[in-house]
Amino acid sequence: MSSSETEPRDEPVEALPAVAPQLRALRRRASLTLEAAARQAGLSPAHLSRLETGQRQPSLPMLLSLARIYGTTVSELLGESAADRDAVVRAADMEPTEAGGWTYWQAGAAGRGMQALRVHVPHGSQGDIVRVHPGEEWLYVLKGRLRLRLGDTLHRLSPGDSAHFDSLTPHRIAAQDPDGVELLFVHTLLQSPTAALCLGPTHGETP
């Protein structure tokens, strides 16, 4: 990320109190220095340090990026765990979490090679975030309409539509309708020095 780009805006400190200690512990477990992890995440070391000390809180896309870099899941970043890797996740046990304007529910157990989420993306929320990282992603539109940009191509998805793509293709997700869009989202968890979260060219731009 160049110095002319603006770092991602984060949530208030109270939003995710468990994140700070987990971020530091998991970075050290991955044998990454603050500088190396920040570079892979497209952040400055000072910004990542503020995340690790609880002065700032990351958005959901940033959590996904850090989880990939550290070879873990968003659940573990949040200090959550599933006992004995339960195969079944009951609806009553899916607690909503908000980050960066998105609301998401864990739809799979922690510690797996893939992570499954149910996600609500509000209209106008982080439509300028472009992600590029190793692995694959699959999403399925449950409700609302989705704008999915893959490289230079814009796709408009309606309920029942799905997409499965290589995550090294620059991709951007945004809700088309004022009520937002609800998705099922599955992604692979790969630890790689090329994993990164990048900003789109213009803040607030929609795909």
UniProtKB/TrEMBL annotation:
SUPFAM superfamilies: lambda repressor-like DNA-binding domains (SSF47413), RmlC-like cupins (SSF51182). Residues 23-77 form the HTH cro/C1-type domain. Keywords: DNA-binding. InterPro entries: Cro/C1-type_HTH (IPR001387), Cupin_2 (IPR013096), Lambda_DNA-bd_dom_sf (IPR010982), RmlC-like_jellyroll (IPR014710), RmlC_Cupin_sf (IPR011051), TransReg_Diox_bact_type (IPR050807). The keyword DNA-binding applies. GO terms for molecular function: DNA binding; DNA-binding transcription factor activity. One of its GO terms (cellular component) is cytosol. The keyword DNA-binding applies. Pfam families: Cupin_2 (PF07883), HTH_31 (PF13560). Gene3D superfamilies: Jelly Rolls, lambda repressor-like DNA-binding domains. PANTHER family: HTH-TYPE TRANSCRIPTIONAL REGULATOR, METHYLPHOSPHONATE SYNTHASE. This is Helix-turn-helix transcriptional regulator. It comes from Actinospica acidiphila.
